[in-house]
User: Fold this.
Amino acid sequence: MVSHQVAGMTGAWEGQLVVTPAPLAPELVAALLAAGARAVVSRRAGTPSPSSADAVAFFAALYDQLLGGRTILQVRAATAGRSGMDMF
Assistant:
């Protein structure tokens, strides 16, 4: 998916949390946020893929915190920089 495709799908992204272990181009992240996504979680461009164990630990922490009632901003602060992942 590229940024111009997202622009035509505005309603589909409204209020959604977009989560992927893949790195996303900054233009795609910006397009998702502009289309209404609440946040985008992805690997930083240029970082090596995390080990399977690191990726599992990151996503487990992410979902545990979200299910525990923390806000997106609280989760972002708690998971910042873990396993090369970022939350936008």
